[in-house]
Amino acid sequence: MATEEAGSALSFHPMEQFIVKPLFGDGPVNWYTPTNVTLWMAMAVLAIFLMLVVGTRGRAVVPSRMQSIAELSYGFIHKMVEDVAGKDGLKYFPYIMTLFMFIVFANSLSLLPMSFASTSHVAVTGVLALAVFITVTVIGFVKNGVGFLGLFWVSAAPLPLRPILALIEVISYFVRPVSHSIRLAGNMMAGHAVIEVFAAFAAIAVISPLSVVAIAAMYGLEVMVAVIQAYVFTILTCVYLKDALHPHH
Amino acid sequence: MATTTHEVAGAAADHAAESAGMPQLDFASFPNQIFWLAVTLVVIYWVLSRIALPRIGGVLADRQGAITSDLTAAEEFKLRAKEAEAAYERALVEARADAQKIVLQARAEIQKDLDAATAHADAEIAARVSESEHRIGEIRAGAMEAVVAVAREAAADIVAALGGKADAKAVAKAVDARLKG
Amino acid sequence: MEGNIVQMGAYIGAGLACMGMGGAAVGVGNVAGNFLSGALRNPSAAAGQTATLFIGIAFAEALGIFSFLVALLLMFAV
What dihedral angle (degrees, nearest 10) is formed by the CA atoms of B59, B61, B65, B67? Predict the structure, then answer.
């Protein structure tokens, strides 16, 4: 640990906020134990429900504020799927919308003080990315059969180069879930850890105003990052889906 | 690092044994996170695909339909307005032509009246002129007679004054001759 | 500080790994700057390419995140 600064006023615990704790008591974390993961994921579900279901209950032709936000997010993702993955990608729109809404709400809710950032855990983002990877691979083979392997055989390149390119393409294909998940988890973890480090500096009276300003600035950046990372995760899902649906470009 | 003693003070000390280092790499919590993530995703997917997305999609489609029908209605109204404008335009042209006709007719009538009046006036003027000439002739004839009479008298008087004896017949003859000559 | 040479090496390694973030910063700046200069030349085509911009930034940034991750692993998990 990096926290052994005996005698110093500073104590850095930037990673403590990510610890998975049971909600009730101090028992071991079994797979079914309700933990802070459960709590904050439930909060995300609740927020999504409030926005997309309760907000649109009026079904008004002239929307209320909540309804127009819901419609905007719907239209945003719908257009993204249609533009990037094509018309036949719209079949998977609910799946992509689920990913986007979960990530954007988990990211945003984790910015509340004392909250828990579930998307900063590699376990969570890894499952999300693996789900996308497996889904896309299965769709690719079901839609195109063996022709899906044409994705790795770059027919635009000169013939001697193709096996090398195919190797590179295969490697980059299998690195996809890794970078897909680490990008989201790393961004969230980094932002929260940096805020925590700045907060620790606030213990020194002289630099505490600077620290407060820095936290405010980082917080603004993190709000942006929370939405942009959700967007990036979603649009990369759309790109991978496009590869699966149309492997020959 | 895992073997170094963990001196974090306070509440987190309980978890120190498992979560030394990054909590993200604490594999003991993975099943828990993955289980709850799966539950969350299934719930969100269910809510979205069953309730939210069809509803929002329906609302958007309704709005699109309303906009489209409004647009077609507006198009129709525009067409109608254009027709009305054309009819108005046509009526204006007709009215203008009618007015032109009426003006021409009125002018012709006036011309006719004027011609008639002119002719009438001309005739009257001619009649008056001839009458006046007639009377002038009479007056001239009257005057000529008076002149002859006066000349005779004056000649007779002049002859008498000169001491002659005026023969009326001779004087008349001489005066006539003089007047004719 | 009980003179653990492994720990010292890990800390030095973590510091070195952070240099990778500078590379990511250069990369992200490059992507955004080139996008901006292209967008100023042809503003009408820029709107359609924002998605590409974000994908490019995401790819460039992912590698910086990797180096950050290596630093974190060295600091907390080795």
Answer: 70
Can you point out the beta strands (E) in B36-148? Answer: none
**Residues 18..47 of B with a Cβ closer than 8 Å to C: which?**
21-22, 25
C76: contact with A, CB 8 A cutoff: yes
Per-residue pLDDT of chain A (249 residues; tens, 9 = 90+): 444 444 455 677 778 888 888 888 888 888 888 999 999 999 999 999 999 999 888 888 888 888 999 999 999 999 999 998 989 999 999 999 999 999 999 999 999 988 999 999 999 999 999 999 999 999 999 998 888 888 888 888 888 888 898 999 899 899 889 888 988 998 898 889 889 888 888 888 888 999 999 999 999 999 999 999 999 999 999 999 998 998 875
CATH 1.20.20.10 given to domain C15-77: yes
CB atoms within 10 A of CB B128: 10
Cα B28 to Cα A28, A212, B32, distances in angstroms: 9, 35, 8
Q: By CA distance, what is A80's nearest residue in C?
A: C51
A124 to B33: CB separation less than 8 angstroms, yes or no = yes
Rounded to a whole number, what is the distance in Å from the CA of A84 to chain C's nearest CA? Answer: 9
Which value does ipTM take for this structure?
0.88
Chain B residues in contact with A94 (beta carbon < 8 A): 45, 48-49, 53
**Chain A nearest C-alpha distance from B102 (Å):** 59
Tokens 């030095």 -> residue: C12
